[in-house]
Protein backbone atom coordinates (compact mmCIF):
# COMPACT_ATOMS: atom_id res chain seq x y z
CA UNK A 1 0.00 0.00 0.00
CA UNK A 2 1.28 3.46 -0.88
CA UNK A 3 2.44 5.79 1.86
CA UNK A 4 1.11 9.33 2.19
CA UNK A 5 2.47 12.31 4.08
CA UNK A 6 0.91 13.10 7.45
CA UNK A 7 1.56 15.82 10.00
CA UNK A 8 1.56 14.80 13.64
CA UNK A 9 1.07 16.95 16.74
CA UNK A 10 1.83 15.05 19.93
CA UNK A 11 -0.56 16.84 22.25
CA UNK A 12 -0.83 15.00 25.53
CA UNK A 13 -3.80 14.76 27.81
CA UNK A 14 -7.36 13.70 27.10
CA UNK A 15 -7.09 14.65 23.40
CA UNK A 16 -3.72 13.01 22.84
CA UNK A 17 -2.31 13.32 19.36
CA UNK A 18 -3.52 14.97 16.19
CA UNK A 19 -2.95 13.50 12.74
CA UNK A 20 -3.51 15.63 9.64
CA UNK A 21 -3.03 14.92 5.95
CA UNK A 22 -2.24 18.56 5.24
CA UNK A 23 -0.40 21.24 7.17
CA UNK A 24 -2.67 24.28 7.39
CA UNK A 25 -1.60 27.74 8.46
CA UNK A 26 -4.61 27.99 10.77
CA UNK A 27 -4.04 24.58 12.44
CA UNK A 28 -2.06 23.97 15.57
CA UNK A 29 1.60 23.65 14.81
CA UNK A 30 2.54 20.10 13.96
CA UNK A 31 5.53 18.43 15.61
CA UNK A 32 6.50 15.82 13.04
CA UNK A 33 6.09 14.90 9.38
CA UNK A 34 5.78 11.21 8.57
CA UNK A 35 5.09 8.92 5.61
CA UNK A 36 2.59 6.18 6.45
CA UNK A 37 0.03 3.77 5.07
CA UNK A 38 -3.59 3.95 6.29
CA UNK A 39 -2.92 0.85 8.46
CA UNK A 40 0.09 2.53 10.10
CA UNK A 41 -2.04 5.61 10.80
CA UNK A 42 -4.65 3.38 12.47
CA UNK A 43 -1.90 1.92 14.67
CA UNK A 44 -0.71 5.41 15.61
CA UNK A 45 -4.28 6.53 16.35
CA UNK A 46 -4.69 3.48 18.59
CA UNK A 47 -1.52 4.39 20.50
CA UNK A 48 -2.78 7.96 20.96
CA UNK A 49 -6.08 6.63 22.30
CA UNK A 50 -4.19 4.42 24.77
CA UNK A 51 -2.21 7.47 25.92
CA UNK A 52 -5.43 9.35 26.55
CA UNK A 53 -6.73 6.44 28.65
CA UNK A 54 -3.46 6.17 30.58
CA UNK A 55 -3.53 9.93 31.17
CA UNK A 56 -6.92 9.61 32.83
CA UNK A 57 -5.68 6.69 34.94
CA UNK A 58 -2.68 8.68 36.19
CA UNK A 59 -4.94 11.66 36.97
CA UNK A 60 -7.29 9.50 39.03
CA UNK A 61 -4.47 7.69 40.81
CA UNK A 62 -2.76 10.98 41.67
CA UNK A 63 -5.74 11.89 43.83
CA UNK A 64 -5.68 8.67 45.85
CA UNK A 65 -3.27 7.73 48.63
CA UNK A 66 0.02 6.40 47.31
CA UNK A 67 -0.19 2.83 46.06
CA UNK A 68 1.88 0.71 43.72
CA UNK A 69 -0.88 0.88 41.12
CA UNK A 70 -0.29 4.63 40.85
CA UNK A 71 3.28 4.01 39.83
CA UNK A 72 2.13 1.33 37.39
CA UNK A 73 -0.23 3.79 35.68
CA UNK A 74 2.67 6.23 35.30
CA UNK A 75 4.86 3.49 33.79
CA UNK A 76 2.09 2.46 31.38
CA UNK A 77 1.68 6.08 30.27
CA UNK A 78 5.43 6.47 29.75
CA UNK A 79 5.62 3.18 27.85
CA UNK A 80 2.82 4.22 25.46
CA UNK A 81 4.41 7.61 24.88
CA UNK A 82 7.72 5.91 24.12
CA UNK A 83 5.94 3.65 21.61
CA UNK A 84 4.44 6.70 19.89
CA UNK A 85 7.82 8.38 19.53
CA UNK A 86 9.43 5.16 18.24
CA UNK A 87 6.68 4.79 15.64
CA UNK A 88 6.96 8.44 14.60
CA UNK A 89 10.71 7.99 14.23
CA UNK A 90 10.28 4.80 12.18
CA UNK A 91 7.78 6.50 9.84
CA UNK A 92 9.39 9.93 9.94
CA UNK A 93 10.96 11.82 7.08
CA UNK A 94 14.71 12.36 7.20
CA UNK A 95 14.12 15.83 8.67
CA UNK A 96 11.88 14.35 11.38
CA UNK A 97 14.46 11.68 12.24
CA UNK A 98 17.23 14.27 12.42
CA UNK A 99 15.19 16.57 14.69
CA UNK A 100 14.28 13.68 16.98
CA UNK A 101 17.91 12.56 17.27
CA UNK A 102 19.16 16.09 17.88
CA UNK A 103 16.56 16.72 20.58
CA UNK A 104 17.47 13.48 22.37
CA UNK A 105 14.07 11.87 21.85
CA UNK A 106 15.67 8.90 20.15
CA UNK A 107 19.01 7.46 21.18
| Number of helices, where a helix is a run of at least 4 consecutive DSSP H or I residues | 3
Counted up, domains total 1
Average pLDDT confidence is 80
Percent range of helical residues? 40-55%
User: How large is the share of residues in beta strands?
Assistant: 5-15%
SSE pattern, N- to C-terminal: EEEHHH
What structural category characterises the helix and strand content?
A: alpha+beta
Total beta strands: 3
C-alpha Rg, in Å? Answer: 15 Å
Within the largest sheet, what's the order of strands? 2-1-3
Task: Determine the N-to-C terminus distance.
Answer: 29 Å
Largest sheet: 3 strands, antiparallel
Poorly predicted runs of 5 or more residues: none
Descriptive notes:
With 107 residues, the chain is α+β, with helices and mostly antiparallel strands. It has helices at 38-62, 68-91, 94-102, and strands spanning 4-9, 18-20, 32-36. It has one domain (4-102). The longest helix has 25 residues, at 38-62. Helix 1 (38-62) packs antiparallel against helix 2 (68-91). The two termini are 29 Å apart. A 3-stranded antiparallel β-sheet has the order 2-1-3.
